[in-house]
Amino acid sequence: MIFMKNQSKEIIASLPFLIVLLSVILSFSLISSVANAAYNTTTINISILAVGRIDLLPDFLNWTDIEPGTAGGLQTVEIQNIGSINVTNIYAYFNTLTVEAVSPYGSDDASSYSSTGVIVMRNQSENRLYFNGRIEWNWTNTISNLDLSNIDNPVAWGFFKNTSTEYVWAVGNGTDANGNPVCNETGTQFAIEDDIDDGTQGTRTPATTTITRDGGDGNYSYFSVDRPTAPLYDHCVAVNTNCTKIYIYKYDRTDQFSTCLNSAYIEDVMTPSGESEILTLDAYIPKGIPDGNMSSSVLTVYTS
Amino acid sequence: MKKLLLFFLFLLPISYAQDFSVGVSPLIIDLGEIEKGSTEAIEFNVITSSTEPFSIYLTPENGLIDFFNKAGYENLVYNYSEQKTDIWITLLDNPVRADPVDQSDGKSKTKKVNLLLNIPRDAENGYHIVNIKPSPEIPSGATGDVGTTIIGVVSVNILFNIQGDAVRAGKILDVVQAPYSKGVAFKTYFKNTGTTTISARVFQDIYDLDNKLAEAQSFRETLAPGETKDFTVSFQLEETLPKKDYTIRTTVDYTTGDVSMNSTMRLEAVYYPTEVKEISIPLWLLALLVIIILIVIYRWVR
Predict the structure, then answer these.
(1) Distance from CA of B70 to the nearest CA of A (A)
(2) How does residue B276 score in pLDDT terms, banded at 50, 70 and 90?
(3) What ipTM was assigned to the predicted interfaces of this complex?
(4) Deepest in the core among A69, A190, B163, B216, taking most CB within 10 A?
(5) What pLDDT is stored for residue A126 in this prediction?
(6) How many CB pairs under 8 A join A and B?
């Protein structure tokens, strides 16, 4: 009994200490929970998909009621990288070869001509405009005062028409492995006159000087024109295998068209951070083209 | 009537504004190292935003050495093989049908494309690239009456490495004069001494002692390992070369390196004028000359 009384007294005496101890523990746990609430972090992961994509603004261009022998006026197209990674090696291709599959010469229908055949363009770093898909067809009639002495085996000739001015060109054929005359083999020559055609022999003597055949394939010989005085200076000219047409371009690097050393990219690298490239285009309408709507066509800007 | 006309005028630009551009994801499919004789299943997405369905034709193309302009890939070019790779692709979905976007949310559409890459047993060691180029087929009538529709297309690059030594190297075996009626020409015999296919081009200069007289180049040719090709470079000279010894400096460039050779040759080239201009003397000038000559003769006789 006495033992029980002593025990109760000890418990009562230690009560204040227990209460203080409990209060301290409770306070620490509260402080700890408040601290936790203030410094807890949530990890947010956002990953961006690797997308290669470009946008072209506007996505349609037209020129209307242009007088033959004049230019339609400058227009611009903006290429934007709207993907998430750098795109490289940007080039452009007009589908003139598909739309204008046969010679339109002699036709009184403007739709026999591809609209992209008259469009010239340049990128931001260039000052001059380049044809990028113009076809000039073999002139099947005789051209008076034509002097073809600079070409070994002349087989085709015609006029390169640049709005109000014209220049005579000519092609000499090469020989294939079987000895047949073709224009996509070694020995094929392309020549163009520097002077504006006025009908005299002096302006109808196309020259091959500094026009290099850079290669060929089953369809074309690819030439780079490096004579500064030539009207197609810095352009590429592809002569088709049967010598009936020449295809003039600059920024077309599809398939083997990049064989020509003058073919160029519009831009080498474009980042996705709002970088863009401006293309400037114009329509050069030559003389002697029938009135009406030319066949609509497509400009495809490629990148990889 | 006015309302009807306005309605059609409003429709016109919309029909032109169809977006047939094609994006891809991912842009580069890096397969790492793969073995000869193996087949790899590959997939990627094409991304479109057209409000009309259209077909996308896919074309495998040989990779271009320009791929290595991309940041982070520059050093791989030294082990790059220019072997034809487009024939190693089997397309399982071609053409791909692009679904129209839902105009209510305007969100782009993605379509999965599957293909197989079949590596032949005789594939060369080193890095290879195949491009898969999408070509959208624009529905007739969607391009408008006159003008040009403009679209943007992105190609997929498939990069892989076939393990083993991949060496790009070459050697000039000989340079000889070749027949050419309008100047001088040389044949350069070049051998691919490496283990990968390379493409090469010959650059040539004609020197009279230290004076460079002319320069020209060949076109680019592809050479398989161990193959020798002759490259012809022709010079249309601006003037006749006197008969004497000249130095021909030949450089063969194969993008990741070049080799050079100097040769001394006795040359004589015929000069052909590239353009003969008409010389036209006005009639009045001729008449004046005749009168002057007659006066001089008359005075001399007197």
Answers:
(1) 7
(2) very low
(3) 0.78
(4) A190
(5) 94
(6) 177
